[in-house]
Design brief:
The protein is of the alpha/beta class. It is built from 6 helices and 7 strands. Helix 3 links the parallel strand 2 and strand 3. The chain starts with a strand and ends in a 13-residue tail after the last strand.
Length: about 200
């Protein structure tokens, strides 16, 4: 019962467009397709994504390559940060640090980490209840919150993805991760975090 949690890859950052409407870059599309060996693990071929455009585009690329279809679930969405919308990179990183460091508080009006964790864990448990054999395409911060629950450790930014387009596998039956994040490699990659 191997399930895969994949974060969407690189996106077109446009401050004039709502974050949830950002689409994939060309590099992001290539990284999504490079994830195929990771998403072939589930026998069911089920792919479920967040409803955000970048996740839907990732799931659709994978589904077309695998000859299957996707569904979307709003509860797989990224943390709700609509209170601030787009933030410049340095400011964004500071707020994300505070989000993880103070999980029971709403930082600048963002969804609290404890609430986002409960939401993502409940959604993933529900989606994997039948077979536990699924590919989920979602987002980095909620992925870190899910990974903390799977590892039975406190919420920490140390569990954040190493970069957009990262994958973690887990067993839904035992509710255990099979290790940590693995970045989907592309030729010419440089190390970096790349947050959404």
């Amino acid at each position: 019962m191997v399930s895969v949690f994949l974060t969407h890859p690189e996106v077109v950052v446009d401050p004039s467009v709502p974050v949830e409407s950002w689409g994939l870059t060309e590099v992001g599309r290539r990284r999504a397709l490079a994830a195929l060996p990771s998403v072939r693990l589930p026998r069911s071929g089920r792919i479920v994504s967040s409803v955000e455009r970048k996740a839907v585009e990732t799931a659709d690329l994978l589904a077309r390559a695998l000859g299957t279809t996707t569904t979307a679930d709003a509860l797989l969405g990224e943390i709700d940060r609509s209170a601030t919308g787009y933030l410049p990179p340095t400011e964004f990183e500071e707020v994300v640090d505070a989000f993880f460091a103070r999980p029971t508080e709403s930082v600048r009006g963002w969804e609290r980490a404890v609430d986002a964790q409960a939401r993502i864990v409940d959604a993933v448990r529900r989606l994997t209840a039948d077979s536990g054999d699924l590919t989920i395409v979602s987002h980095g911060a909620v992925g870190a919150l899910l990974l903390a629950d799977l590892q039975r450790v406190p919420i920490t930014r140390a569990l954040d993805q190493p970069g957009m387009g990262s994958v973690v596998t887990f067993d839904a039956g035992t509710w255990r991760a099979h290790g940590g994040w693995q970045r989907i490699p592309l030729d010419g990659d440089r190390t970096g975090t790349g947050r959404d």
